[in-house]
Amino acid sequence: MAIRFSELMLKIELIYDKPPLPGWQDTRRSVHLHSIYWVHEGTGRFTLDGPEIAVGPGSLLYLRPGRELWMTSDTANPLHMTMILFQAAAVTHRNGVWEAKELAALETAEVQNLRGPGQEDCEARIKALRTAWAPGDDGREAAANNLLMRLIRSLSGHRAGRGGQERTILGAGNGATGGPPPWEAAKRYLDTHYYADIRLSQVAEDCGISLRQLRRRFLEELGAGPKEYLDKVRYEHALRLLEHTDEPLKRIAAACGFYDEFHFSKSFKKIRGLSPSIYRTGHPGEGQREE
Fold first, then answer.
1. Per its UniProt entry, which superkingdom is the organism in (predicted)?
2. Other C-beta atoms within 10 Å of 128: how many?
């Protein structure tokens, strides 16, 4: 069904920067979602319902719901890629009535191998998406959904405005016009560096605010101190990796900034009331499969 981009509505469920581990193999787990796979570096092979495709830097796959995928990374030159899992619907308003219809597929090529400016543009868009998306933060999720819309539009051959305009929009909000207040800068840092070993005192210093003031502003604006907020951000990312991937708990712990698997399990159980493994057992990709 042909739809206008003004009628398209997207909701990101997961963005995951899959690390380049030698020789990994994986399957598409959440086949009920739309998926985009972008290869930053490395080489490997993807198998789509039978045909095998060699992939490398600049390879992009879009898979509609229901498509099977088997992925294999080379050992000597392992794949480093970003996965984007999302829902898509068409929302129309006719004769005073709103209608929403889930989309079976988007009108974009399933496999693209981008080179030159096209590859550079897509790489920048994917990185901007990874930076923008913060699960559980309504504003940042909405911004990321908008960036995904722009990515899909560019992949479908539709350009908005004159050359360079999209890049300006992608780079908006980076503080070039004075920057956000110190507490917002600290929040943005936690949102985008949750996977790192973070010292809150250093974050406060780098943002030009005392740790005491930072705690006070976080409590006033977010209802939680910076440590509690960081734990929530890490938990939200871990939750989606448990729901939509088969990554081992050890790897999820490392990807989300926990010291180790034990720390991850303890923190998760404190928030959720059950262990990550038990939670995953009850959420097997809505009965389907994805990495």
1. Bacteria
2. 19
